[in-house]
Amino acid sequence: MSNKDIYILGIESSCDDTSVAVLKNDQVLSNKIANQSIHKKYGGVVPELASRAHLSNIIPVTELAINESGISLNKISAIAYTRGPGLMGSLIVGAEFAKSLGVSLNIPVIEVNHMQAHILANFINNSDRNPEFPFIGITISGGHTQFILVEDYFKMKILGETLDDAIGEAFDKCGKKIGLEYPAGPEIDKVSKMGNELKFNFPIPKVKEGNISYSGTKTAFINFLEKNLKKNKNFIDENLHDICASIQKNLIDNLLNKVEFFIKEKNIKKIVFGGGVSANSYLKKRLYEESKENGWEVFIPDIQYTTDNAAMIGIVGYLKYINSDISDLKSTPLPRYNF
Fold first, then answer.
1. Domain 7-122+306-321: CATH architecture, name and number where available
2. Tens of pLDDT, residues 213-249
3. Which of 12, 121, 275, 276 could make an SS bond with 310 (beta carbons 3.0 to 4.6 A apart)?
4. What is the pTM of this model?
5. CA-CA distance, 65 to 26, in Å (whole number)?
6. Does CATH number 3.40.190.10 belong to domain 131-301?
């Protein structure tokens, strides 16, 4: 590759957010996201509604991203898009739009694994403090909880993952049971700040070695609420802050127990997070304490790059482009897409 600047148009449409970004090398020039609030009333993402919204949003969001970037489409070097994992209908919209635009501009398209992008988001705008390989990557979101050995940009191996619910899914389901709107994770984080995290105790499922489970905690939480509501119909309202703080502590404790397991097993103290739950303020507080006490070196993307966004797709596209890793136009979306 020459030393000239590389411009990547990134497209993310794996779930319910339509996002388009423009990067100049590893620097973000624009990163626009159209959220779909319609899913709130259903308490979760409705796939058919999500794909329809992507169809409406993809062109306007692309125009916004290009306009804000200050460059014209003819300067784009390549287009990166999410191939998977994700919802099939949503992925198809982003993939087909990316390939059509690539053909019309006569530039290459680059497929991206959404989960790799969450980890590699730590390399955005961050040349002064990039994580050094190898490190333990941890993806925590509404759909995934994975522990990954990362030896290079694209040399990743899943060490363990959730056997049932993802941590973000557990936050949302528990939040729904106490009357919080979807997505409940950020609301639990906020309400917890005024609560006593030691007030109520919930079990942590015992799972051997590197995998993790959250389904049992969710069930115990529901049983706990039903038991106390029978005694006091106002139990949730009177104890909301403490309930939120206590369940949040449990979910994070479970996660950090597994992080500690892999740190000891792999003898690696560099921990790199990605995904929406990595924005949780209580998790950040606990990680700061672990860093001071045990020498963990922790990396978390800027908060704008933790949830699903096209900038993280763009940085992977940039890294692949400089390695001449270009995709075939015959490539199709993969709802289940392993490393």
1. 2-Layer Sandwich (3.30)
2. 999 999 999 999 999 999 999 999 999 999 999 999 9
3. 12
4. 0.93
5. 16
6. no
